[in-house]
Every structure is written in C-alpha cells, then in structure tokens.
Amino acid sequence: MNPNDTHDTFDAIDAFHADRIDWCYTGTNAAFVKKVRAADLPIFGTISAELPDGPDVRTRLLGRDQTRTGDVVPNPELAFIVARGDVASDAFREVVMAHCRAMLDAGVVGIQVDDPGMTYHGAIHADGGYGDASVAAFLTYLPTKTTPAQRRLWGLPDLVEGFDYRAYAEAKGANLDSALKQHFLDFHKASLDEFYVWLRVSLDAYAKRRVPLSCNNGSNQRQDETPYVKHFDFWLGETGLQYGDPTAKGIFRKSLSAQALGKVQVFSPPNDGLDRIPTRGAYVDLTRKPIATGYACGSPTLVPWDVWRRGPGTPRFFGTAEEFGDLFDFVDENRKLFEGYELAYAAGPGMDPWFVEGLDSAPVEVDEGVFVAVRALPGKPEAPVVIHLVDWREGGSSISLQLKDPAKSTRLLIPE
Question: pTM higher than 0.90 for the full model?
Fold first, then answer.
C-alpha cells in the first residue's frame, strides 16, 4: 500500500499455495496486474457502487443515488461518507465501464462486484433509490403496474411523468402507502436486474470474450434468494458472527445450494471486528473451522490474509503460515482427494443428516459436535471414498469414527 507496508502479496501466494487472486481493488495498478498474470495466476478486479468518477480521479459526483431528502446515500459500513451510484443512471454506468475498461486493459480475467445489491439495497436499507435517473425511470414504470384510480388514491397525478416523486415521498415520510412503497422496491429490483444484463453485454463486447463475474454474498443468504443470482458465475460468501453464519450447517447449506445451481460458492474468513472477536487467538480458532468445513463441502475459502474486518479500531487481518499454513498445505498435498469428488453424505452440529439420492442410511457415525462429509467420485465405485472430519467442539481432542461397512483399507491424514 505504501513504502512502509511490510506485507507482500507474492510471499503470501507462495506460503498458502494460492492459485488465483479474487476481489482485488486493482484500480489503475496495471504493473501489479501484469506481475500477477506473469506468474500465471488469474486475477479479478473489483467494482462497487462507490467507484469514483473515473479511474484516475477521486470525485464522486456523476450519476449518484439520493435519499428522499436529497442527501447522498452512504455505505453504512464506513465511518466516512462515500456517495453511491445510481444503477439507472447512464452517467454512473459510464463510470462503471471506465473502471472496467482500465482493469481489462491491464489484464484482469474477470470482475468482482462488491456489495451487488447496489441501488436496490440502498432503497431497502438506506432510504435510497431517489436519484434523478431512478426517479424518472420509476415514473415510467409505475403506470405499467397501476391504474390512474390507484395513483389518485395515493395523491399522485394521472400522468406522473415529470412529477417530483422524491419531494412527494419526503412529504409523506412514514405515511407513504405500503403498496406504493412496494412498487418502488419492485422497480429497483427490476432496475438492478437490467443493470447486470447491460453490464454483461458491455463487458463481453469490450473484451471480445466472456468476462466472468463474481460477487460477495452474506453467508446466511442462499444464492437463489437474490434477484441477480443468474448474472454471476460464482460467489464469495462473507462469514461473520454479526451478520453471517460461520457454522458447519451454514457452510454446508450454502455450498450445496450453489452446487445445485451448477456453480461454486467460495467463502471468505469472518469479517467481525474486535468488538465481536477481541483476541487474535479467538479469531484464528474460528477461522480455521470454516476453512476446513468449506473444503470438506467442495467450497474453497479465501486465504485469511488481507481480510477486511468491520468495526472501529479493527485493522485488516493478515494471517500467517504458522496460524493457517497446515490447512492449505494439507489441501495442496492431497489435491487428488479433492478434485472431482462430490458429496454423498454430510452431518454435523445443528443440522439434519443429508444423503445423496440413492443412499438411504448413514455410512459413518462420529461424535456429536463433529462435522463429517463423505465424498466420492461419481461413476467410479472403485475409487477411494474420502471422509472429512472437522471438529467444531470447544476444546475437542480425540474423535471417534465408526464405519458402517468394513473398508478394505484405510488411511488417516491429519493437517500438521
């Protein structure tokens, strides 16, 4: 980040056997992107609703969202105000593409969308969605969903084109009709969906190839619970005690949901701050469990290095090989026991046992509080069956495993 920064991305790549870089704010640092690509690693650049007006400027004035009082819509996770863009605005769309063109020219393979709810989530959570472009588009949308009689009951004119809907909503305040408010949210949901259709076409046309898209999603949120699920090629689930679900059940449930869609769910380390997890030891202990459970479910986890953690006074987290290296060494050394394998059975704390179709009884039994995943190679009954065990107990030491059918041979592998 600066000459005094002691952290080195490429040292971390080597230490953790990383084979790609995701969710990276590359900005205009073409030299860094080229260095990554020269190492034969794919890298995804990142866009968000908070992009400045151009790759080389710091202002945020073009095509911005507004609240009903005309204020900018901030990011509630940041201590300072950063004006968010309005996805219905042609000006903001040009801002997005200016950043994407710069990143693609530098050599990024794909694009990560940070906080993909954009203006739709601003309308839900931050009284947003009243930018000029969105209001104009909403007034075109509303007559297609309502009758003049309905609009008169709400105090709107028969012909709403050009009507100052933001001022109307401000005057109504908490008395804004719930049905009209729902139309407003439905419009923003459709507007966001259309934005991603536009983004896909624009990216592919510029790059002259299909540009993969990823986005972050809350770890307690299934992929098909979002209006924009079909536009993304994979997801990076943010775990965390405050808003996420860093449990065996949550990681399994979300991994299985992604696989049913034919895609991959990646997980990030917990993003809780020091107010939730005050010691480094506690953070390391919690983070190790989702890493192991994710891989057991067929979902990789981002290396816990340069991790954003929310809350005041909480710096980014840079994990060490001493804290996490044994897990990533284990996966790297046993790639053949991960690649191509799919879930056949899973059970663990807080969850009902899950069986693949055709399996009617549990093939293994383990201690309560231990997550177990049985994985096999489809169509290859002669291949080894792999049983993953992850101890979610407090202070657990030994684990008992009982096989329902005797195995011809067994091999025990433990991260060290």
Answer: yes
